[in-house]
Design a protein that fits this description.
3-stranded antiparallel β-sheet; 3 strands; 44% helix
């Protein structure tokens, strides 16, 4: 198994632990290689957008953090 694969798996595990209110996975490209990082909202208390897609794990992490803040601030408007 390549180092990249191990890092991707570790990133998926970390994202799933931090954001259990989302179903998080790595898309597959047509050529079979790993594609975008995706999250589907399961718990409306944890986000606003039903699906978030980013090209990098760090970008998805940042966006899900923002989603969580947006959901929590929604009640205070």
């Amino acid at each position: 198994m390549s180092t990249r694969t191990i890092n991707d798996e570790q990133a998926l595990d970390a994202l799933r632990r931090e954001y259990p209110g989302h179903n998080i996975w790595r898309a597959r490209r047509r050529d079979g290689l790993a594609g975008d990082w995706c999250a589907t909202l399961l718990n409306p208390n944890e986000g606003i957008d039903p699906t978030v897609i980013r090209s990098a794990a760090d970008d998805l992490w940042d966006e899900l953090a923002q989603e969580r803040r947006r959901a929590r601030n929604r009640g205070s408007l």
